[in-house]
# Entry
Amino acid sequence: MSQSKQSHPHALVTGGAGFIGSHVVDALIGAGWRVTVIDDLSSGKRQNIHPAATFLKMDVRDQRASQWIIKQKPDAVLHFAAQISVTRSIKDPVADAETNIRASIWLMDAAAKAHVKRFIFAGTGGALCDETVPLPAKEHHVADPMSPYAIAKRAIELYGDFYRREYSLPFTSLRFANVYGPRQNALGEAGVIAIFVQAMLTNCPVAVNGTGKQTRDYVYVADVADAVMHALSNDMAMGVFHVGTGKETSVSDLFKRLAIITKYRKKAKKGPADTNAPARSSLDASLFTSITGWRPRTKLADGLKLTVLEAQAQQKMKNRICIYPFKKN
Ligand SMILES: NC(=O)c1ccc[n+]([C@@H]2O[C@H](COP(=O)([O-])OP(=O)(O)OC[C@H]3O[C@@H](n4cnc5c(N)ncnc54)[C@H](O)[C@@H]3O)[C@@H](O)[C@H]2O)c1
# Structure
């Protein structure tokens, strides 16, 4: 017998048309949740949204988004919409704060008024961790935020603490490492793997910036969606948690691995070093594992293959021009 629509728990996912948010929507719907997506499609795509989700094309800076929460009283709010460009945040800190700080506070405030059972925020581990702290970094090893983007992510965690104490908002920040996988936008600045895969599959030049020895902690997007589901189903998972693999992979290593998978024959070009980016980062997720039992299950080798397979399936390779030759990594 089918359950009525109302008996399913209801989640609002902001940014649910984006890379990570859309995988979270898929996981929620797979677990029987009713999902509403709010997204302005500024970087997300309508085709990423699961057909069973209700889609509201709306900017989170618009008061209608927080009013929707107060009126509809969803069980959970998962806040993934963000201005995600570090470079843009440096060029225009005010615009960054409008989305990443002000709108986030409006949503938390509305969620507290609506007595939502969980508020999960997409935090960053990568932008709050570098070689100045012991790696893999634990939650209290926070490096000085170097960009308005990182400042905003940390600020929302502090506001989240405040809303938890003062207004009983069940706030969790999942600080993701460098997330990769299908649907990541190769035009953005975040995803070196998406950029490399796209360039290699179209036989375009690929630039490895600096020495190529800079490392990041790459976590597969399905494991990140699984982490969100673990946080949602565990009332003890409140506060701030790292979600990563604890392993470091260099950009040169990524280049070699992806060249083999995509059968790319060109040598890497040398790009300029990004002096604002940390030399190393990786996250210790053992606190989150000890509370929820979550572990990253996808090995890098498997995740890279899945990412390439999906990109091959998506791309019509003919007549492509090289538009991704020199991106940050
Ligand atoms: N990708 C990573 O490695 C990573 C790491 C740590 C944290 N995060 C965080 O995870 C979240 C999702 O990132 P992503 O990589 O999936 O990026 P993404 O750009 O694919 O997703 C962001 C989504 O938010 C939407 N959006 C942006 N501004 C909006 C606004 N004002 N109103 C409504 N919707 C808006 C976009 O259209 C997009 O669909 C972000 O909060 C990001 O900061 C990502």
Remarks:
- Residues 145 and 151 are 5 Å apart (CA to CA).
- Residues 9-178+219-243 form a domain with the Rossmann fold fold (CATH 3.40.50.720).
- Residues 15, 17-21, 39-44, 59-61, 80-84, 99, 122, 124, 126, 176, 178-179, 185, 190 surround nicotinamide-adenine-dinucleotide (CB under 6 Å).
